[in-house]
Amino acid sequence: MAAQQFDFGMIGLGVMGRNLLLNMADHGFKVIGFDKDNQKTTAFEEAANPGTTVKGVVSLQDMVSQLATPRKIMMLVPAGKPVDDVIESLLPLVQPGDIIIDGGNSHYTDTLRRVTYLQGKGLHFMGVGVSGGEQGARTGPSIMPGGDQEAYPHVQPMLEAIAAKVNGEPCVAHLGKGAAGHYVKMVHNGIEYAIMQLISESYDLLHRGAGLSNDELHQVFDTWNKGDLQSFLIEITADIFLQPDEKDSSKRLVDLILDKAGAKGTGKWTSQDAMDIGVPIPTIDMAVTMRNISSLKDERLKAAAVFNTVQGKIDTDKETFIKQVHDALYFGILMSYTQGLAMLHRASTELDMQIPLQKVVAVWRGGCIIRSTLLDLFTKIYTANPQLENLLLNEQIAGLLQDKQQNLRTVAAAAIQHNYAAGCLLAAISYFDAYRSGQLPINLLQAQRDYFGAHTYQRIDQPGTFHTIWNK
Predict the structure, then answer these.
(1) What CATH topology corresponds to 184-435?
(2) Among 9, 210, 238, 417, which one is most buried in terms of CB atoms within 10 A?
(3) Is the dihedral of CA 399, 403, 407, 413 positive or negative?
């Protein structure tokens, strides 16, 4: 009897790998998954819906031999060496024309290296960003494939079937050359860092600053999620405030969680790579920095004792302050998207990735962690002007920001005056003020550079490059 011809194979049956495969099976595809852990393969098969074709195996050769050609194999394993190890173990089993997909959060430079390496062996390699967490993977994630355009049509029907849908459109599209898929996912995660930090700073100002209880915070965020801040992250934040502690139901879990954040590196990569291509993303940079500072918990406690730090109560009309914080948060979130999308615009040409921004923002509208009502607006803007360098140059965006900037300034001032760390809110307004300023004090900086290092400067009254022997 001939072996079952499966449509798609998965290496790694952790929560994300298992859920993506089950999602495919629900859409009529025959799927097979490999994991060294027999318990995971069993759990995978048991989780399948009746009538679907699902199989788990503990031998890589078993999986590869049962796949229809060209084989379509996705890895969901930790970034770095594990990805290279899996590729090496696949090489003796696959044949030219087969397609290998990395669905993890690999750095784009690793993806480019693997594309070239496998091209030389006649194999297609694609870096694909997947966002939406375990629930999204099961019911409809946002999917960001890039790279091999010859391979994409072979996986397109499956990816479109399982992706989240917005107005009937699947939240997946081919997003450019080379490692574009992983690059877009990296920037997505940088934006995610910034928005989460902005929400946390807003919470701090409302909770410790203005004295809102968890119930009041739930009500505020729930109301915000019904308006122009509607988004996945605002929605889950509203839920978090109501979650009781399992050990003591009279307490809320959020109050018992240590203020020390983890990070897996994609935010840091976004900051590093933005600096490499010369794109300012200070709100994202500050979000990474604030996570790093949060990890210094013991030092922070010592410093709080040294400085006798007290975060003061913000004495203001509560309803007025809630409206001001709403506007500050909206402004900051818009700045986070603005900076991330400006980075993608530059990378598109600088790194020859040819990233279509109108498709990127459309793909982010559903399934992903940073989905938001704002993305519908961005989709219209980039569809009308695909080469827009920066959202701040769009009149509609400018109008939204002009309307809210004063409230951000008021909130930022309150944070500074009452000892609240609000780095992302401050970075957002600083970026705004710098980007729209026709004159910055960098003329003095250029004079200093020329004075001590003969770095030269340009003049405003004539063309050319100049150097001066400055008076000692």
Answers:
(1) N-(1-d-carboxylethyl)-l-norvaline Dehydrogenase; domain 2 (1.10.1040)
(2) 9
(3) positive
